[in-house]
């Protein structure tokens, strides 16, 4: 679940950096915009098509402040990108980062209107809010009550667990990208606090065993397996929780706690 | 505090003195509501506790006085007034307790069922609320609690003449419903709002055994489909049913049984069907119940599309139901049939379109005739244009709720400040608004604050987090500030958008009547929380999520928690130490901390960070039924 960094060492340090008064939000806008520019994305550079607010327009004159902002950026990122979720300011349509639990605050039975309303619209008016979604099976089906399929995800070396909504993704690549977004800042913060480099490095190679980390999961039978072997939908229907482990520890991580599932290991 | 038996008349003046001393530290009366102070009735309860309940018998006081009092108090229905009466002296307390027939418990964990049944001996109606509101949005793990079971067990023994039970956000099982149906022969009204844990089999038992049943209202509850034909379980004779609402029941029903039930329910005024009821079925029901005042129209879609004369005359059916003042349903609306409701539009006071994807062009011909509407719920598919049409006609509008058709942060958002401003200009008598949108301006919000002075409830949800005024780029502080400043009757406020501490300083300064405050993704620092806790004396329910408030902010409200119903803080920056501090300082407040899951493995939580804090006052200490993942500090 999205939330504040749980590492105490991050908290006080960042809160100190938040200056009081109105100035903060001005800087925050700039920081968030800066984050946008600095973030690693799957899209082409500069292709920031999504503009949720007029913030972008207002920040045209902040180019010159960029350099000064940079140092604050780094420390803000760990806090901001995770807590204040500027993830909604990135090109969501392309990469669909995980939605936040319970937001917007709409009860579950109101959430499925877009998917269950049939295309029985009498008039062809194209007024804004009219959304024509055709429902092929206009059967009387029980509306799914869950708003998303949230599973827990932990990462070695990061004490804070998160949650991801698997329904928000359609492929392993998207999931892998989301994992990177979720944990990159936290991992860097964790490393910084334990005396290492606080620089944020993208978390890549989760699926092919080539990166520093590998994504594994526990299925509904309790078996621990590498992510990526089965078709996506099959994975989604059987996964119970996820874990990002150090690639060097793949063999021990997968056998621990299982009876004899060696055949599931890739190597 | 030990008590001695004394001459009661001498005691009375002492009682008065003692009860009038407002001791905030020992206040925790669950059955009282502000603005009356609740502290003294708590000490009254505490006094009694030190004595053995059963053996306490006062030396004969003035019987005449008590009888007179009893007769007078029968007329007192407001629980606020009754709480005040109970504070006068011990004998008034006793008489009040004997004559209180309706009990309201805003938080089921603020007292034990035993305390309820000991104090009030003749209860006929019980209103019980369980989980806090954020539980509706998956912020609370399942199996957290709020079980109805201990309450039904206690009341089954103590109140054989119980007639009415109204539950909100409680966990109710089929067994609980069965016990209820069996224990109260005169049972008349069951209302379950936002409840879960039961299914159609539980409903069937209630239908079958509660022979005096007048009201069976299932609202926004989760009802499992046990494949039981519960409608056939009503007794075959004439029923006393006045209200039957099952629009949240997501399972098919026996139409014939429903029709027959309606025929033998001459007192039926409110019928809210579920989405499995087609237009044809609805037509048959309407024809048999033209006396209906409130109708939930089901799917509002025909099962089969017939041509010409073969099709039932739906408009005629509506014309025949001259008393309909409240319409809802439209779960799967076929737009061509919407005009059928036109005959009743002029008399409508309440219209709920919030399940129907209605465009402005579909809305306008209908709303044009709805001059008397007081309550209007819709989806944002009606657009700003639709809201303008509402503003042009619905001059009597008191409550407006606009829900998002596509409730995602990055959805289109067809309504904005334009619609809000139009409503404010057209509907000057507006008292309550819930508005979901993607873009808003301080200007529109300020306009509403100036045009609608009667507002008591203002809930604005800008769905994108931290979104500023989309025209000026500024935070929404000024708009919300205007609301709290100009709407002097405001008791409930929900804020959203980009907000700094400044917004909260306004809330603290002007929100003197605010009882419920909802905050999400807002504020800069603990100062914001402090402004609110120090500035809003009437605050009862505070729910906050994902905001940068920590131990310092939490500490600033210590003086208030005993006088509040609850405080919820999730995904903020609280530490266990900070929460423990509150728990130790306030023995009458229960401090619960938990994560978002039901499993209690610790590897997701460093010892100190608190994901969710839920605190509430309680007369009977921490609850015994807390699941493992909940820690009570």
Q: pLDDT under 50 segments of chain A (min length 5)? A: 1-32, 45-97, 118-146, 257-267
Low-confidence spans of chain B? 1-53
What class do helices, strands and sheet pairing of chain A give?
alpha+beta
The biggest beta sheet of chain B is recorded as:
21 strands, mixed
- State Rg of chain B: 26 Å
- Widest sheet: strand ordering of chain A: 2-1-5-3-4
Number of strands of chain A: 5
Name the helicity range of chain A.
25-40%
Shape of chain B: globular
CA gyration radius of chain A, whole angstroms: 21 Å
Distance between the termini of chain A: 32 Å
Structural class of chain B: alpha/beta
Shape of chain A: globular
Mean pLDDT of chain B: 89
Helix content of chain B: 25-40%
**Total number of helices of chain B:** 22
Would you tell me the overall average pLDDT of chain A?
60
Main beta sheet of chain A: 5 strands, mixed
Tell me the series of helices and strands of chain A, N- to C-terminal: HHHHHHEEHEEHEH
Count of helix runs of chain A: 9
Quote the beta fraction of chain A: 5-15%
Domain Transport inhibitor response (chain B): 122-167
Pfam families (chain B): F-box_5, Transp_inhibit
Keywords (chain B): Auxin signaling pathway
Protein name (chain B): F-box protein FBX14-like
Task: Describe the 3D structure.
- Chain A: It is found in: Nucleus.
- Chain A: Belongs to the Aux/IAA family.
- The complex is a heterodimer of chains A (267) and B (633).
- Chain A is globular and about 50 Å long.
- Chain A has helices at 10-17, 23-38, 55-58, 66-80, 92-95, 113-116, 172-193, 232-238, 250-255; strands spanning 150-155, 158-165, 213-219, 224-226, 239-246.
- The model of chain A is unreliable at 1-32, 45-97, 118-146 and 257-267 (pLDDT under 50).
- With 267 residues, chain A is an alpha+beta fold.
- Chain A has a five-stranded mixed sheet with strand order 2-1-5-3-4.
- With 633 residues, chain B is of the alpha/beta class.
- Chain B contains 22 helices and 23 strands.
- Chain B has a 21-stranded mixed sheet. Chain B has a two-stranded parallel ribbon with strand order 5-7.
- In chain B, α4 runs antiparallel to α5 and α10 (255-263) packs parallel to α11.
- Chain B is globular and about 75 Å long.
- In chain B, 52% of the residues are buried.
- Mean pLDDT of chain B is 89; it is low at 1-53.
- Classes of the chains: A alpha+beta (267), B alpha/beta (633).
- The interface between A and B is large, with 68 and 87 residues.
């Amino acid at each position: 679940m999205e939330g504040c960094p749980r590492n105490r060492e991050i908290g006080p340090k960042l809160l100190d950096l938040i200056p009081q008064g109105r100035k903060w939000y001005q800087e925050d806008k700039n920081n968030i915009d800066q984050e946008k520019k600095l973030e690693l994305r799957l899209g082409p550079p500069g292709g920031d098509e999504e503009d949720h607010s007029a913030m972008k327009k207002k920040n045209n004159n902040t180019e010159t402040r960029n350099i000064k902002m940079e140092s604050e950026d780094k420390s803000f990122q760990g806090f901001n990108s995770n807590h204040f979720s500027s993830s909604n300011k990135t090109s969501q349509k392309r990469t669909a980062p995980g939605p936040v639990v319970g937001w917007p605050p709409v009860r579950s039975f109101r959430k499925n209107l877009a998917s269950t309303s049939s295309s029985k619209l009498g008039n062809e008016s194209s007024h804004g809010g009219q959304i024509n979604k055709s429902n092929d099976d206009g059967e009387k089906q029980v509306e799914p009550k869950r708003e998303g399929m949230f599973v827990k995800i932990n990462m070695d070396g990061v004490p804070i667990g998160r949650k991801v909504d698997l329904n928000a993704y359609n492929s392993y690549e998207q999931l892998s990208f989301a994992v990177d977004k979720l944990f990159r800042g936290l991992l860097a913060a964790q490393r910084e606090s334990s005396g290492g480099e606080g620089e944020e490095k993208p978390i890549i190679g989760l699926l092919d065993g080539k990166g520093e980390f590998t994504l594994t999961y526990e299925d509904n039978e309790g078996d621990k397996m590498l992510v990526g072997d089965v078709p996506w939908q099959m994975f989604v229907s059987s996964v119970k929780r996820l874990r990002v482990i150090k690639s060097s520890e793949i063999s021990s991580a997968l056998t621990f706690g299982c009876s004899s599932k060696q055949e599931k290991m890739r190597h | 505090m030990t008590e001695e038996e004394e001459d009661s008349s001498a005691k009375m003046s002492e009682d008065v003195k003692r009860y009038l001393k407002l001791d905030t530290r020992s206040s925790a009366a669950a059955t009282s509501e502000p603005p009356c102070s609740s502290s003294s009735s708590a000490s009254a309860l505490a006094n009694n506790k030190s004595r053995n309940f059963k053996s306490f018998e006062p030396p004969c006081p003035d019987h005449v006085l008590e009888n007179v009092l009893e007769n007078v108090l029968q007329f007192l229905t407001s629980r606020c007034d009754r709480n005040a009466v109970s504070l006068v002296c011990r004998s008034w307390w006793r008489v009040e307790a004997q004559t209180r027939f309706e009990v309201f418990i805003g938080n089921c964990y603020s007292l034990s069922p035993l305390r309820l049944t000991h104090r009030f001996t003749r209860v006929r109606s019980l209103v019980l609320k369980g989980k806090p509101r954020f539980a509706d949005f998956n912020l609370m793990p399942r199996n957290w609690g709020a079980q109805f079971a201990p309450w039904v067990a206690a009341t089954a023994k103590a109140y054989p003449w119980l007639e009415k039970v109204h539950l909100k956000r409680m966990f109710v099982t089929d067994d609980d419903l069965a016990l209820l149906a069996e224990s109260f022969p005169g049972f008349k009204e069951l209302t379950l709002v936002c409840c879960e844990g039961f299914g159609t089999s539980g409903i069937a038992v209630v239908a079958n055994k509660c022979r005096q049943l007048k009201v069976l209202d299932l609202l926004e509850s989760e009802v499992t489909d046990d494949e039981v034909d519960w409608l056939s379980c009503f007794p075959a004779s004439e029923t006393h049913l006045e209200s039957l609402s099952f629009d949240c029941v997501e399972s098919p029903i026996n139409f014939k049984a429903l029709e027959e039930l309606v025929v033998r329910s001459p007192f039926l005024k409110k019928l809210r069907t579920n989405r499995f009821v087609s237009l044809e079925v609805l037509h048959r029901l309407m024809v048999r119940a033209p006396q209906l005042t409130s109708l939930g129209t089901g799917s509002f879609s025909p099962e089969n599309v017939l041509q010409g004369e073969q099709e039932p005359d739906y408009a005629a059916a509506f014309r025949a139901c001259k008393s309909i003042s409240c319409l809802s349903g439209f779960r799967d609306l076929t737009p061509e049939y919407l005009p059928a409701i036109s005959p009743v539009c002029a008399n409508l006071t309440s219209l709920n379109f919030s399940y129907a994807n209605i465009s402005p062009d579909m809305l306008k011909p209908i709303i044009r005739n709805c001059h008397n509407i007081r309550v209007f719920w819709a989806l944002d598919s009606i657009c700003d244009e639709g809201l303008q049409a509402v503003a042009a006609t619905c001059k009597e509008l008191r409550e407006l709720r606009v829900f998002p058709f596509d409730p995602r942060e990055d959805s289109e958002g067809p309504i904005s400040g334009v619609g809000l401003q139009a409503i404010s200009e057209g509907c000057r008598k507006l008292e309550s608004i819930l508005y979901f949108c993607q873009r808003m301006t301080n200007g529109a919000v300020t306009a509403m604050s100036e045009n609608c002075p009667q507002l008591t409830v203002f809930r604005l949800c800008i769905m994108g987090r931290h979104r500023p005024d989309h025209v000026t780029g500024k935070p929404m502080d000024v708009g919300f500030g205007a609301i709290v400043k100009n709407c002097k009757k405001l008791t409930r406020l929900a804020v959203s958008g980009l907000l700094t501490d400044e917004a909260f300083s306004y809330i603290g300064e002007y929100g003197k009547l605010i009882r419920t405050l909802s905050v999400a993704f807002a504020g800069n620092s603990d100062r914001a929380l402090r402004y609110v806790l120090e500035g809003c004396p009437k605050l009862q329910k505070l729910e906050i999520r994902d905001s940068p408030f920590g131990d310092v902010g939490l500490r600033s409200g210590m003086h208030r928690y005993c006088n509040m119903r609850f405080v919820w803080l999730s995904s903020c920056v609280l530490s266990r130490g900070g929460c423990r501090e509150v728990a130790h300082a306030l023995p009458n407040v229960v401090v619960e901390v938990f994560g978002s899951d039901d499993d209690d493995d610790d590897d997701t939580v460093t010892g100190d960070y608190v994901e969710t804090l839920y605190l509430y006052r309680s007369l009977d200490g921490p609850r015994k039924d807390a699941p493992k993942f909940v820690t009570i500090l």
